[in-house]
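A quick aside before the break. I want you to see a complete sequence-to-structure record at least once, exactly as it would be stored in a machine-readable document. Don't worry about memorizing anything.
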Amino acid sequence: MKLDIVFAGVGGQGIVVASDIFCEAALLDGWDVAKAEVHGMAQRGGSIVAHVRIGDNVQAPLIEKGKADMILGFEMLETARTLSMLSKNGTVLVNTKYISPSTYFDTSKKSLTSEKLFMMLQENAKRLFTVDGQSIAVKLGNLRVVNTVLLGAFSTLLEDSIQIESLKKAISDRLKDKHVAVNLKAFQFGREQVVLS
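That is the input. The structure line, written in tokens, reads:
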């Protein structure tokens, strides 16, 4: 078994934490794991991409262009930027959140841009799933759990590879006790967002 995943978004969205949790769960399930992160101006909302490779025998952490099996996108623009990493048969799960670049001031064109990005994702992914992680986090009263919502949604696509209990344990082990309950709830809400056909 081999699974190459790209986590993509901007600084402050919890990409590093989510990818760490995912890697820990994969280790709990006995897989070889390799991870690499590429940080832009992370503290200023810059790009962050994490390469995660799991399998029976993983040799290196970086994923070649056109070889990623899946992309977990925390934001639409950064997800679109990583599409060159995706294989022809690849799957994308993306948060519907759109963060316009800090140099982009014309908000009247925001919906057009989001629409264009969505079309790009549709054209390049064999399977595309969307999740409104922001709305779920608002319902839970904590905007910082969007990453766990997305991880929960993503977990529904991985049940042959990563056990749900391993992901829950990794969440519990990685986060401070006071944040575990809301994150486990967010994870479950995320799982309920994806309907597989």
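Two observations worth writing down. The radius of gyration is 16 Å. The beta strands are 2-10, 32-39, 47-55, 68-73, 86-95, 127-131. We'll return to this after the break.
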